[in-house]
DNA sequence: TATGAATGAGGGTTCATTCAT
DNA sequence: AATGAATGAACCCTCATTCAT
């Protein structure tokens, strides 16, 4: 008797999203295996019987939570694509957004990575999200190459994976492992390294924003 | 009545290392939580009871295994430091060694990352290993800066973290997530990106370091 | 707030009998323990809560259903008693009716047997129904004995139990366990065995019916 | 880590058979569904964890118990076939043995009937046992027919099913439903009914086999 | 040393029943 | 009358660990 989001009374919707929220917090704090269904229920303030009204089990909740997080990551990426300006500014904006998306979702993505090691469905979800970021990075580089602003000999996909990985990995070290750094410094350095790595030609008069 | 490596009969040593080996395989394939002590014993061809002759529990075995892996990572790093040649060649050699070290230990390091999220002792071990790599990268960069071969404005530590992360993360994407690439191409590109990112001045005549 | 059959709106009556019908089907297909109240409600097209408007619980529904079935068995028996004719024809008619009553109710009677093993109320109901059949059989035999048509040394009750059991059991083997046989052959053989077993004297000129 | 009968230490064998014995008692008293694994463990005097050392679950225990019971039924039948003497004496001996086999196993056979309704594996086991009895009865009748001692027009299989069913069913009514009767009377009546039903010719001089 | 039987805390899940709407 | 969300007792099962042999 599992109930989906649709066709729920207001009360049901409230309970369901309380469980999703509680689940997200629990997974982030403890990891998939360490989370007990009862923990989630206690956080959400419902009995454990109620849990099974909405989800078939712990894994189903996890799927729901990760999907939501991945959705946020997608959204962050879309917003980022609106950034205008000269190439360097765009790279900087992208890096900043990327770092912030990670700041919000880092733990859950790591949980997903963990889950992906043992379950192909999670693996597929992970690869799907990753692909969006890779493609966006590769497209950006290709455009610069076409405009003669970046080294045309670089393989766009592989380069995007490597430099994107640099940002993603730094976010992890920074946020999860406690490496000290402030956002401004980090974004500036990431941008400098990225720009130079692709051989970005400084547009003759690089008027920096005031 | 746990027995350490020292003071063991030959038979005891054999049993113990069979358990460590079996444990490593099991952890790599299934992850810490999914591994049951029985799995390890079955792999090692030993009865359950025997396990506790050598280890106080599953966690103790994990500690032992991760320590061994970290030791291999250290060793790889040390070997890498012997590489001679011009800066570019040294960076290339380091990247190649790094990728290979990951090829051998990627899964266990990820397990350690996972364990680090919930246990401070594992966290400390992880940070310790990471520090070795970071320091080596930072030292290398500082030397180049002193020789006037790299951009002196770069923060050595932060830059080493970022570029080292690029390599580490690529190894993960390549080996664990199945991104297609051959080692030569990957090493060449990583090296090119790394070198350009730090503003490496192409040394006209490759004077080997003293 | 359980509502009985009397004093119900038309709508209420419809809902109630939908539940009884759904319950009978469910019990026949799955057995008492395997049936969940939700199954019954789903079959009846009613929400869980509504069930308890009409029945105090699963057992109450079961009681209702079995009572109905037992009623049908009684009715079958009554109809059978109207059969006229010579003794052999009456025995044949009774056997045929008995087999047919089982064809319609076999599963539910078995459920009742099952329930009777653990609950004295069901046991009493079962014995009550059985008694009707036994008594009818014993009375029939006694009449034949008084008429000098059957072996007077037979204990009427015990004989009725044994020969009646033969018919009942055959019905079970035939219908529930899938033994191949057609009704005509079965009824003829049961009648022959029964008649001979009680030492039925062939009435010299048996033709009664017009 | 389920352990079969073979390859067990003496202690293991003791524990295992204690569980089987406890299981049999529990199933007989309460029926499959009502039995809790913990009940069985308590009866056997072991912790519930131990149960799973020997059986994969409740159903596996039930399979084991029913197999044992069916084995006893087989054995009873084999012993019965040794009975010598004139036809009437043989029928009487068979009926007595049959009643006694039921006295010992009645409850478990009913459990099996119950289980057979929902599980084809149990159904197959039930049919297999039943077939042995049917075949034995049919063979006996056929031999009498060939010797000119019984009505040759009777279908041996169907007749055996019906008369065998009479005995089986009486056993149930007698033992499970509490119908009052003593064994001697019951066996004598069953034998008389059976013999007359098949038209057994009284052998003038009852020569017992040497 | 090695064995494997025994233990029991701990966790996931089901489902009859209650109750506010 | 009907609904369906919420409850929690009751069960099944796993597995790390202990211990007698």
Automatic annotation (TrEMBL), chains A, B, C, D:
One of its GO terms (biological process) is negative regulation of DNA-templated transcription. Keywords: DNA-binding, Transcription, Transcription regulation. Pfam families: TetR_N. Residues 36-55 bind DNA. Residues 13-73 form the HTH tetR-type domain. GO terms for molecular function: DNA-binding transcription factor activity; transcription cis-regulatory region binding. InterPro entries: Homeodomain-like_sf, HTH-type_TetR-like_transc_reg, HTH_TetR, Tet_transcr_reg_TetR-rel_C_sf. This is AcrR family transcriptional regulator. It comes from Nonomuraea soli. The lineage of its organism: Bacteria, Bacillati, Actinomycetota, Actinomycetes, Streptosporangiales.
